Fold:
Amino acid sequence: MTFPTVLPVRIALEWLVRLGMAMVERTGVTDYFYADEKCTRCGTCEKVCSSRKVCVTGEGPVWQDRVKCYFCYACLNYCPTQAVQIKSKWYMKSYTKWNGRYPHPWATVKDLAGQQDRANPGTPAAG
Ligand code: SF4
Ligand code: SF4
Structure:
């Protein structure tokens, strides 16, 4: 399928995508990720989250309400124990319990943590 070449259709579709993303960002993407029993509270998911949505507490990671998610999936792919999962919904089955993880081969946790500062310079750095 090719992207529509008729200008009004393209503009309408682009705005629909933008609207969808804005809504998702505003609501902060709640109830999407979770950490299972394999979590060791190492803090990696918090370090690699460029939007600072993830905060690791004594109970484990929390994907904070009202904080944007950039859908980079770094929290999921960089977790060393593959503890981060996506919840299954009635309309979408998640296979993260069985599928592997695919971090970028050249991007380290340190690299991503460095980008976190640039993405949100006003927010205190993660501990
Ligand atoms: S990276 Fe994985 S193991 Fe570490 S705190 Fe996050 S969910 Fe837990
Ligand atoms: S997908 Fe990316 S931006 Fe969203 S919570 Fe995970 S690391 Fe943060």
Observations:
- Helices lie at 7-27, 44-48, 74-77, 109-119.
